[in-house]
Amino acid sequence: MYNFILLAIKLKVSFLGGAKEVGRSAVLVDTNSESIMMDYGLKIETEPPRFPRLPDTKLSAVILTHAHLDHVGAVPLLFRKGQNCPIYSMEITSPLSRILFFDSIKIAKHENYSLGYSEKDAKAALKNFKSFNYRKPFNIGNSKITAYDAGHIAGSSMILLENQKKLLYTGDFKLEDTRLMKGADTDIEDVDALVIESTYSDRDHPNRSEEERKFIEHIRSTLNNEGVALVASFAISRSQETLLVLDEFEVNYPVYLDGMSANATEILDAYPELQREYNILKKVLQRMNVQFVDNVNMRKKIIKKPCVIICGSGMLSGGPVVGYIKKMFGREDCSLSLTGFQSPGTGGARLLETGKFTDEEVDLTVKMSVKRFNFSSHASRTELLKLCKKISPEKIFCIHGDKTEEFANELKEVHGFDAISPDIQKKYEI
Ligand SMILES: [Zn+2]
Ligand SMILES: [Zn+2]
Questions:
Q1: CA 400 to ligand 2 centroid distance, Å
Q2: Which of 179, 130, 124 is nearest to 154 (CA)?
Q3: Predicted local confidence at residue 1, as pLDDT
Q4: Domain check: are 328 and 198 in the same one?
């Protein structure tokens, strides 16, 4: 009889955000004894950003896969709404989340909208962070949790939850090595259900070394013209990846880091064990004599001579990169390299479409050479399919993508998996 009851226990999974969309990821797993929220992010393409739905139960714990806004940005809201539980993540995710929370609050104030949580809520959340390590299982009530390196950014994790059944949530991941990160650790067995990101389910990335070569060509031709090469990069991991590329190709001009890129670099530098090659970031920072920019006077001064400036805000939605564009937009000798995807509606996407940089204050025709490069830290379509086959679970939930339905259908019809693109809020049993 007892055995029968155990067998009847099922995991209930619901998606409070990030279903049939990219942004506001929130995966809620209810066992018979715990409610565990995996990620609780913001959708930042809209203004004000959108939150996931609120859980209708008292949470036992939150587990965070990595410090990107679409995965952690809404955590303080949980505390504002009365939740008070531990937040588990890799240690580095805590200081990185701190930057993201306070930056979101700053942007909301600047743009004059209400974010939905305050500094006090962010501090309450930050107090509750507890750290785990890759492949060191721990328990939340009766559930056993193991984190595996996801290869996406520093500290990114795939989460395996075991409670009668085994559920693996990939968060964002990449199988192939990049210059900064080792590819994901996927030696994980007997998974019943896989919750997989699907950002690039319909396309492969261009050849990485070819992309690096084009990027360096863009930088070099600017520097040869005595211009300033401005690089808009995502602050966490992408900016540092960009530095490693500049070092590899021996770009011998002054290199500066500004804004959130500088802050994130300092944090990543303190975790050498999370880099593909132990401490490679520090070696490169020293070898290239990279300078951190932290004041307006320094900004005015450095753009008078040829140099490379790497700034956060990869989609040009704020921060120092916007200030540089406003100063240099008319200079044909200068360039702007965008190193990632530009979401529709962002300053970066508008600039690529129209050749103009616009925000609420300006409408500028940009004469700098503007080019976009693909240094994605997400799994390509080929990598997504490879992971599904490797893990070979009984059930697959495709989330975190604009084409999740098409991807689930393909997994079902071409590859024979029981796959779905879940609906928001609906509960699924495993
Ligand atoms: Zn991410
Ligand atoms: Zn994401």
A1: 7
A2: 179
A3: 46
A4: no
